[in-house]
Amino acid sequence: MTIELKAADGGTVQVSPEILQAFKAGFAGSVIGPDDDGYEPARTIWNAMIDRRPGLIVRCSGTADVVRAVRFARQHHFLLSVRGGGHNIAGLAVCEGGLMIDLSPMTGVWVDPAARTARAQAGCTLGDVDRETQLHGLAAVLGFVSATGIAGLTVGGGFGYLTRRHGWTCDTVLSMEVVTAAGEPVRAAADENAELFWALRGGGGNFGIVTSFEYRLFPVGPEILGGAVAWRAEDASEVLDFYRQFTAATPRETTCVAVLRIAPPAPWLPREIHGQPIVAIFVCHSGGIEEGEEIVAPLRAFGKPVADIVTRRPYTQMQSLLDATQPKGRRYYWKSHYLPGVDAKAIEVLIEHAARIVSPHSAILLFQLDGALGELPAEHSPAGNRDAALVLNIAGSWENAADDAANMRWARACFEATQAFSTGGAYINFLTEEEGAERIAAAYGKTNLKRLAELKKRFDPDRLFHHTKNIDG
User: Fold this and answer.
1) Burial (0-12, 13-18, 19+ Cβ within 10 Å), 327
2) Of 436, 428, 472, 449, which is closest to residue 168 (Cα–Cα)?
3) What is each CA distance from 71 to 12, 151, 242, in whole angstroms?
4) What is residue 66's three-state secondary structure?
5) Predicted TM-score (pTM) of this structure
6) Residue 433 to residue 221: CA distance in whole angstroms
7) Which alpha helices (DSSP H) does 391-462 contain, by range?
8) For the segment 311-349, what is each residue's pLDDT rounded down to a tens digit?
């Protein structure tokens, strides 16, 4: 039976059984259509706000499959999207009616402990990489939720508990294996395809499909000092002022994340606080344990905490401590800013909007960044914004579609109220579906954006890879 796929230009393409069979004959992975078993889980991603139905899903077993899929899409002018971990807030992994190239079966990780490097395939999650590298007491600079895919995280910049020490995730990439828009596998590194390598370190999915990443690793763990301390929301002003002063004085081995939210029914929080507004600080000290205990002591002693789970723990456990707050299948809508710091007025505004949270799953978060980022020039990679001290993430999260408008309205109001405190930059991985050219420009800055546009013309002149936060060449 002939199937119909959406074309890149908005039209449709008829794919005969013979054409599809010829493609399948040289494809080692699985090919899934809307009527096949496994289609629903294959098209479903983390954010339930995204409900698109690809015309065809090809689940790749390796780079050869990716090459074949790209050439297939290019030959027939299909609308194309690429899935790694499927954790992007805007749902860039899934296109409506087109061809979705799914990298999630590609989860190999190879660690060279002597060289302190790891090669990881693009379908890996953070947890996949952490599990293998921690066998050797090493870690890559990755994010905060273990189910996040490494591919989207890395090509969009990437930050986590180790960013203060070592910069953006993309700053620590040594090389990439990339399938170009022409369907050719190439290596991109500082000494080979250097311009492509530059573009992929923050330029998103605009320039090719990365099938594996080579990361520089750093000695971390296997145990670190980490956890969280929580207080009642009535203490939020004092706690956030303490957070401001404390984070200004701590070494780069110590990273803190402040959270304003309604207390979930988590076992580490007292039952009587469940459902009540709280402020919490998550802390990770990736240096020496004893040193960390001294550094973190003032945090643990501040005010009257209702809970304290700061302890020695495996680094892999720290990396998954926020997982329960981000389950697959909820509806998510984020707004975000980079901040140069946190002043008293900003604290007032954040507390005011935290008191208006609509859903018990939503939160306002401040991620600490300052440190190694600022040691490289803004043009070192497209993921610039090296003047940022923090990321403010207004993270809407709820269960039912009927509540979409109220939750999105809350997030947008908080975003607008905090605009005055922003650096003016934006984090490309946190941009939601409706955020377009203006916010993309804010993510890259004028100089980087101009260079990216020129490289887009060179590496993807036909705009095969445009189901992304698109850079117009």
Assistant:
1) exposed
2) 428
3) 18, 21, 55
4) helix
5) 0.94
6) 37
7) 404-418, 437-444, 446-459
8) 999 999 999 999 999 999 999 999 999 999 988 999 999
